[in-house]
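Fill in residues.
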């Protein structure tokens, strides 16, 4: 099997993207392929692989596989990258994309962090899901509550944005503790039957937060789009950030802007970059993996690096 790929990132969250509309893929090898591709020593190095797909109704969409080979329902940073690729097929600035069986309104936006290709996705936010098996409040949600088997004092807000998240507001992020909590969740299948993404959030200014996330299936990563979405929403729910206003969300990988709304249900729009870094070819037979870089997007890399430098 030989396929062309584009390496891209959203807010520093790196992906290897494959257009399966133009190139057919064997579904039986996708998990194994993701493990090989994402390996940062022997592979291309990424936080997951993204597949551009098209369903029977003609809608374009995304499938994502984590570095451990598991499939994710949704990825906020990834779907912006897929949006850029899908736009060439759709021929419009606003369109719907599917992921994990759900439909996400998506659009190309004017650049918000320098002259960088920018896309936004509107995400429905739910305050409870089948992924949470601990006790909700009387109102049916869980906002600022303690989950004692996980940690005796930290307060969490449980949010589902196509995948499950719990968010805790902290004065200072403790990476060692976050890693311990991420590992602890794996044994708490009675309350997190499908695992969970865990974020610690620092409020650094008015409508300005910093997020660090332990991702289910990947560990602590520089960036996670659905975690930034969930964190911004959790802050709005607790009155720490404003609805209907830009919330700047930073992490170690970069930054996005989120807009939380409650007028027609709880929704948060995630807006940020979709940066291409290289193009190449993968050769894989299910066991042996090889790749060749054919082109590097130097201008896009320079633009992103300039933005990162401006944050210092």
């Amino acid at each position: 099997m030989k396929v062309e790929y584009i390496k891209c990132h959203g807010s520093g969250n790196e992906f290897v993207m494959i257009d399966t509309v133009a190139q057919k893929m064997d579904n039986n090898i996708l998990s194994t392929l993701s493990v090989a591709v994402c390996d940062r020593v022997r592979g291309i190095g990424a936080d997951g692989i993204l597949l551009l797909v098209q369903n029977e109704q003609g809608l374009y969409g995304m499938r994502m596989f984590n570095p451990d080979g598991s499939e994710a329902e949704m990825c906020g940073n990834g779907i912006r990258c897929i949006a850029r690729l899908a736009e060439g097929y759709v021929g419009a600035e606003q369109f719907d994309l599917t992921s994990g069986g759900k439909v996400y309104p998506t659009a190309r936006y004017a650049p918000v962090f320098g002259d960088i290709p920018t896309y936004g996705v509107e995400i429905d936010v739910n305050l409870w899901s089948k992924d949470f098996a601990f006790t909700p409040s009387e109102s049916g949600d869980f906002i600022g509550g303690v989950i004692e088997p996980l940690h005796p004092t930290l307060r969490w807000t449980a949010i589902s944005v196509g995948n499950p998240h719990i968010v805790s507001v902290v004065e200072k992020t403790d990476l060692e503790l976050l890693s311990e909590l991420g590992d602890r969740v794996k044994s708490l299948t009675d309350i997190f039957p499908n695992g969970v993404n865990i974020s610690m959030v620092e409020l650094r200014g008015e409508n300005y937060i910093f997020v660090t996330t332990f991702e289910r299936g990947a560990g602590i990563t520089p960036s996670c789009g659905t975690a930034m979405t969930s964190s911004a929403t959790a802050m709005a729910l607790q009155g720490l950030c404003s609805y209907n206003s830009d919330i700047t969300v930073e992490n170690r990988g970069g930054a996005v802007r989120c807009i939380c709304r409650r007028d027609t249900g709880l929704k948060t729009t995630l807006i940020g970059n979709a940066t291409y870094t290289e193009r190449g070819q993968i050769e894989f037979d299910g066991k042996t993996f090889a790749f060749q870089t054919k082109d590097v997007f130097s201008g896009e890399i320079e633009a992103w690096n300039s933005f990162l430098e401006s944050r210092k």
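The mean pLDDT is 95.
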